[in-house]
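Good morning,

Attaching, inline, the backbone tokens for the sequence recovery test we're adding to the shared suite. The designed sequence is right after.
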């Protein structure tokens, strides 16, 4: 099996080629995007680019594609537009077996052939022209009609669907392709479909190669980066050493600018500026002020540590707990005396505030009263009021009031604590951010911590509920002491004599830093330069070769095609009686196998007659189409030479014989050949459809579902005359005295009808009396048919009578004779007599 051999060969190819092969064998279209992806696979496989390279498991199992090939039948062309010499909207019907299309020279037949050459597989004349007589420019188009095995109609559009698989199952032969096959090398149009794999495979391989060569041309190998570095630094040295062997990751590490580098450079810049424009006394004053401010921060923190010490926190917690104990006792002991008084919200804060306020108000009254101070009702003897005063004077309530007063006092104390450790946006703030960022963070965090602790304490004192999240917070003063020590060291350094040495060291570090920045800006170009250098080194060893593809194709072609093709060609030459020692010579050419017909090493056109050349070309065409199992139809345009009438019968017989295998369509201007084809169809029992392409006045390309009158048998002529007689009868019945022109129209029609009836009687002599043993368009005499020929003198007399009836009044007669034009009833009698004669005397 061809596919198996192809797959075995593919499995030995690089992975990227396997991906292409898989797509082709799976009938998947390779888009430009997918081709770019395959190009990336090619580069990864050859280490020409970075990225993960995961090989997908490719399943090359053989699928039986025969079952996927639909069983279709071509039904013809519909609605032809924009083709010269074909009337717009014309249809060309195609029969299921044989289709015979007759067209005289100038009828538009050649335009149909050119259109078919463009739609289907053909090496013929494809020079299709737009309609020259149309006022508008309309591009050639038509519908190609197919019928599937379910009987459903499928329509394709030309030129939109020109490459559709259905169109590749039909092939066309014309005189142009015959000359081409006889004089030039040709590539088989119908090699087994499996060989199309190599055409597609080679196409995509060449596209990948084009992309590869294009990318090679874009690579830059000049190291111009060194011009950007004028200081003697380690960075400059690293740049000058760049090349195909450079480790780009190592280079990136060398030029990497870290956060530490940025911080160091900022500090060095400041330090360098300080050293270059330093006023030692002023600087000492600034340092001493910083120490003073840090000491103040230290004092504030000591105060805060004390205020929020663990002792104060534990005392505060204890105070809240005591207050809550007294409250509970007050509630349990003091309130029990009111249990039978049915008082709303007894013991609530609002209730307590109410009775305390009442007591305070009552104490302001200077005389004793025995009525309610609110409503003036008499309260003498009511014990509830006395209970209120007794409750307020109890020990538990007194202690509770004392603790709540203490809580209010301590709450005010905590609320008033100022937790700001240092002033923001101050000199100290700026210095801490720049030189002591960790201490700065600690001070900010400490300030936030004290504020949060203060807030929680105040909330607990307000709610009288201790928050278990409250923990002791104490700021460690060691870092402040370290900062003070750091500043003191700086004050001592102001007295050093090595300031200039320090400036030079800072400048050297600065040069390295700025060269790193330059290198970072150039990094993308540098990286590309290094990658291009490495890429080109690898690319030298990557060559995409197409010769192995051509070699395997030719090997498989010789194995599966050449022998069968040559065998069938020789058989076809025998069938066509064209045994002239013709040979097929083949050679491989870049993914294709080319064929050339020769006779004794010479071109057939230099040795053979036109008829002999045509026979060999047809044999080659039939051999080529036979090796393609998916071919459903073959089309011939004038397959015989008008100069070689002896070969008409042989070619006609062979073409009709092929109709047992597939659809056969034959276009011809040779009426003799047309009749020969019709006879062969009848002899072989092949169904055939005959149509005629006509030119009517100036309009060409008109298709009629009929055959030329001169080629019609008597049966068809009788049917034709019946149809014409119906029209004549209709015209006759419309004749009125006020329309004399209608009489003339009927007379002319009747005259032409009678002429055709007379010609039908003449055809009866050939077809009925002599049983087609002698035919006017055939040079052969079929003597065997004379055995059944019914010719007698009596029959001749009957024919002569019928011919006389239909023609006596047709010829020019003297006007004085005054013969009347026969009425339709008379014409019908003439026709009935002819039909009866045919039925009665047709040979059995």
């Amino acid at each position: 099996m061809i596919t198996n051999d192809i797959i075995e060969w593919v499995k030995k190819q690089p992975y990227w080629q396997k991906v292409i092969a898989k797509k082709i064998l799976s009938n998947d279209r390779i888009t430009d995007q997918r081709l770019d992806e395959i190009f990336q696979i090619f580069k990864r496989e050859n280490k020409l680019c970075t990225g993960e390279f995961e090989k997908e498991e490719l399943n090359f199992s053989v699928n039986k594609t025969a079952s996927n090939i639909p069983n279709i039948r071509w039904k013809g062309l519909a609605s032809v537009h924009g083709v010269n010499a074909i009337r717009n909207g014309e249809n060309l019907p195609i029969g299921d077996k044989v289709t015979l299309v007759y067209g005289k020279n100038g009828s538009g037949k050649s335009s149909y052939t050119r259109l078919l050459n463009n739609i289907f597989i053909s090496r013929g004349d494809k020079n299709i022209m737009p309609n020259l007589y149309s006022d508008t420019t309309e591009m050639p188009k038509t519908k190609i009609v197919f019928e599937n095995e379910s009987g459903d109609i499928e329509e394709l559009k030309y030129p939109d669907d020109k490459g559709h698989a259905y169109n590749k199952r039909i092939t066309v032969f014309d005189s142009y392709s015959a000359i081409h096959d006889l004089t030039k090398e040709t590539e088989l149009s119908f090699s087994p479909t499996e060989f199309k794999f190599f055409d597609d495979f080679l196409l995509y391989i060449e596209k990948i190669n084009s992309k590869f060569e294009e990318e090679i041309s874009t690579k830059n190998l000049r190291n111009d980066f060194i011009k950007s570095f004028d200081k003697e630094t380690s960075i400059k040295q690293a740049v000058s050493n760049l090349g195909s062997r450079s480790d780009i990751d190592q280079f990136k590490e060398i030029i990497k600018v870290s956060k530490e580098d940025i911080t160091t450079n900022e500090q060095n810049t400041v330090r360098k500026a300080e050293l270059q424009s330093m006023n030692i006394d002023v600087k000492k004053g600034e340092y001493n002020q910083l120490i003073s401010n840090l000491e103040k921060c230290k004092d504030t923190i000591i105060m805060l540590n004390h205020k929020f010490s663990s002792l104060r926190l534990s005392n505060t917690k204890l105070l809240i707990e005591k207050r809550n104990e007294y409250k509970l006792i007050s509630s349990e002991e003091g309130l029990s005396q009111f249990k039978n008084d049915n008082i709303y919200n007894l013991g609530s804060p609002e209730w307590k505030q109410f009775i305390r306020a009442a007591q305070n108000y009552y104490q302001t009254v200077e005389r004793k009263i025995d009525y309610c101070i609110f409503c003036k009702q008499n309260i003498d003897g009511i014990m509830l009021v006395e209970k209120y005063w007794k409750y307020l004077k109890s020990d538990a309530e007194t202690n509770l009031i004392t603790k709540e007063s203490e809580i209010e006092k301590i709450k005010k104390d905590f609320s008033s604590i100022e937790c700001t450790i240092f002033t923001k946006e101050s000199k100290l703030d700026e210095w801490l951010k720049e030189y002591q960022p960790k201490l700065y963070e600690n001070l900010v965090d400490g300030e936030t911590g004290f504020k949060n602790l203060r807030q929680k304490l105040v909330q607990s004192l307000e709610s009288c509920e201790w928050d278990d999240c409250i923990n002791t917070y104490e700021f460690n003063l060691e870092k402040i002491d370290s900062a003070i020590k750091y500043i003191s060291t700086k004050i001592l350094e102001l007295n050093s004599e090595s300031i200039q040495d320090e400036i030079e060291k800072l400048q050297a570090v600065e040069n390295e830093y700025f060269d790193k920045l330059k290198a970072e800006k150039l990094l993308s170009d540098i990286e590309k330069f290094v990658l291009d250098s490495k890429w080109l080194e690898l690319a030298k060893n990557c060559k995409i070769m197409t010769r192995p593809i051509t070699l395997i194709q030719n090997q498989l072609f010789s194995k599966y095609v050449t022998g069968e093709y040559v065998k069938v060609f020789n058989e076809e030459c025998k069938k066509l009686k064209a045994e002239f020692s013709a040979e097929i010579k083949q050679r491989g050419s870049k993914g294709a196998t080319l064929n050339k017909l020769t006779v004794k090493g010479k071109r057939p056109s230099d040795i053979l007659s036109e008829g002999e050349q045509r026979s060999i070309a047809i044999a080659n065409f039939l051999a080529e189409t036979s090796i393609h199992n998916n071919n459903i139809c073959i089309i011939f345009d004038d397959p015989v030479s008008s100069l070689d009438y002896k070969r008409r019968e042989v070619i006609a017989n062979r073409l009709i014989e092929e109709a047992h295998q597939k659809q056969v369509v034959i276009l011809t201007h040779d009426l003799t050949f047309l009749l020969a084809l019709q006879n062969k169809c009848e002899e072989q029992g092949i169904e055939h459809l005959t149509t005629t392409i006509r030119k009517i006045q100036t309009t060409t390309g008109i298709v009629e579902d009929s055959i030329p009158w001169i080629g019609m048998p008597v049966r068809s002529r009788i049917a034709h005359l019946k149809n014409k007689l119906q029209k004549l009868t209709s015209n006759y019945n419309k004749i009125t005295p006020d329309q004399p022109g209608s009489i003339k129209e009927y007379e002319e029609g009747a005259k032409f009808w009678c002429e055709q009836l007379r010609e039908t009687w003449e055809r009866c002599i050939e077809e009925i009396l002599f049983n087609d043993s002698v035919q006017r368009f055939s040079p052969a005499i079929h003597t065997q048919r004379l055995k059944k020929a019914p010719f007698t003198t009596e029959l001749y007399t009957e024919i002569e009578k019928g011919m006389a009836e239909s023609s006596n009044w047709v010829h020019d007669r003297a006007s004085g004779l005054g013969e009347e034009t026969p009425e339709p009833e008379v014409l019908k009698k003439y026709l009935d007599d002819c039909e009866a004669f045919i039925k009665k005397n047709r040979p059995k």
